[in-house]
Amino acid sequence: MKALMNFLEKYFVPVAARVGAQRHLVAIRDGFVAIMPLMIVGSLAVLVNNLPIPVFQHFMTAHFSTWKSLGGYIWTGTYAVMAVAVTFSISYNLARSRDKDGLAAALLAFVSIIVISQPTADGGLPLGWLGSQGLFIDIVVALVVTELFCWLMGNPKLVIKMPEGVPPSVAKSFASLFPGIIIVVIFGIVKFLTVAIGVPDVYQWVFHVIQAPLMGLSNTLPAAILMVFLISLLWFFGLHGANIMLPIMTSLYLPALMSNMQAGVHAHYIFTTSFFDAFVNMGGSGTSLALLVAIFIASKSAHYRDLAKMAFAPGIFNINEPVMFGLPVVLNPMLFIPFILVPVVLVIISWAATAIGLVPHTMILMPWTTPPIIGGMLVTQSIRGGILALFNFCVAVAIYLPFIKLGESAKVKAIEAQSEAAHHHATQST
Fold this sequence. Notes:
Number of helices: 19
Structural class: mainly alpha
Largest sheet: none
Low-confidence stretches: none
Mean pLDDT: 85
Number of domains: 2
């Protein structure tokens, strides 16, 4: 165990820390975080429209025949344009990280995705590609446009400087005029070339060639196990695993959730962002709320129990920093195995329960602060989801229990050894 820890600390942790601080991944993470309120609003609209209570549905349909159109309007303004919103947000955050005009970069990114889009027959925007299906290419466009913009803005010959009396907002817009022109022309040429080679709709081409196979590959049990393993491993070494892996998790598993949402009862993706939030990350990464319950059951240590009491309330809402750094879990060899093992076991159990039809597929995006058990019912729109979450929670507690007892036993032995050593030293002195 010690050799493994030393190896990981020497080779894995430095690389992971650099990845976690990588500018583009941070921009993607912050971009998705910024649009989460919109996603939650859209998710609640879908939930109300499809609330699995027959009495409610019959009552609303009988008295308000078109009542579901309200949720549809909200969905159109949130999920249906999710890729556009995240493009704007990613570009803004990336430009700001380079001390450039974030608003100008974000507007150029938005314009660029419109330039390369294929209009509908009546000249409208292709709404089908502005949502989750267009997410992959829009993230790439946001990064490319912003990097081009920042590079061009670094050339003083391309920046128009206005006289001092000109309002700052006007001066700022003219400063980005030439870089903006160059970027829009570049993407216009890209669109011209793709049409010339017989690919009028680059979104559709990329989705079928790259994005769809990637989603299919990521929606396998080994891939899901790898994701939760890496998150827990990063956390163990004091790195915020959830934040580091967020760009990857969101890019791969949020479109799967959107697909399930549109498919309804015919949903087929098992692994989604809501799957992990509802059935695995109960109390935070490593199902750390179960660790607190295990402490209440098995620990006699005043330190452990006092900390568990303080960390329990935040843990209910999936905030686990108090237990991660206060217990601590970070760099605690006694908790390394259960902290890594619990998420893997819960992923396997939840995958099996969903695959054989015991639990419906996840179809609703829930706020990450949703308490455990409730989240399971919410994302599946079924009490069976809550039962699975409860079962998983009990399994997690059972896995943590023996390690808490072992930790207590090791601590007692260490104290006894210190006491014996002190007594022996005192005896020799006399």
